What we know:
The chain is α/β, with parallel strands linked by helices. The chain has helices at 14-21, 37-44, 60-65, 84-89, 102-117, 120-128, 157-170, 184-190, 197-203, 223-228, 246-254, 274-277, 293-313, and strands at residues 4-8, 24-27, 49-52, 71-74, 93-95, 149-153, 173-177, 192-194, 206-209, 234-237, 260-263, 282-284. The protein has a 7-stranded parallel sheet with strand order 8-7-6-9-10-11-12, with helices on both faces.
Amino acid sequence: MAKKSILVARAVFPEVLERLGLHFEVESNQADVIWPRDEFIRRLQGKAGVFTTGGERIDAALVAACPDLKICANMAVGYNNFDVPAMTAAGVLATNAPDVLTETTADMGFTLLMATARRVSESEAYLRTGQWSKWCYDMFCGADIHGSTLGILGMGRIGRAVAKRGAHGFGMKVVYHNRSRLTPDLEAEVNAKYVSKQELFKQADHIVLVLPYTAENHHTVGAAEIALMKPTATIVNIGRGGLIDEDALAAALAAGKILGAGLDVFEGEPKVNPALTALKNVVLTPHIGSATVPTRQAMANLAADNLIGYLTQCQAKTPLNSL
């Protein structure tokens, strides 16, 4: 029986390609070319599955143009590149890679929080450019983390992992806002108190965004929310670009209305708003929240598991829709 064909849209670990090759005819993209949409659709012709990494848009027009497509497996927990209702209507399964990146991404969230609060990037640039000539009592004074108030917007698995680090590691008071309140047991586990979104922005010394991106969450943090923050407060985004109105954030940072920001995700990534790159009091990283070798391997293998399971046995591990 002939093997089904799949497309791997971006470069991945060679051992993952080897696994896939045991089950499928694999067209891969180890050159890591960003294909134009027309080229992506052309390469999907005759393919039963596609391994995506979060940047490839799968929508109604694409699935209509690719009648052999049965599954799209994202090597990411986020899936705002998928039009899931359109995929469901066309009989195409959508899968993502949750859970395996929770702790690593929470580590990165806390890394950005600490770097922002303690002005690490700004002070390192000062040293590297030869400006450090003496000690000074107020040189790069930042904000304390221990004993401060941590506000988390979005209390899923990653949000709770960030909360644990703050509450148990740094003695932080944790407040959170979520679409739905956690159970009392989960609140107790992370020592967190539910508050309104407005109260979170008023109370928190450090805010971490861990929301998925949806149309409803677009610019959930704008000028009005930032205006509620303390002038000594920081904000970190490890959720998705588009959660923050970046122009409003840049204006507040430039005016010193808040202490700083740490951003791993951006609205137009890989392009970054030049108003942000011009500022010293913002820590910027290129969407590396899950970037450790073990975690990225686990993400890639879960995407491969979904492709193998669904196309050989009609069973995917982490489906997003029901067909």
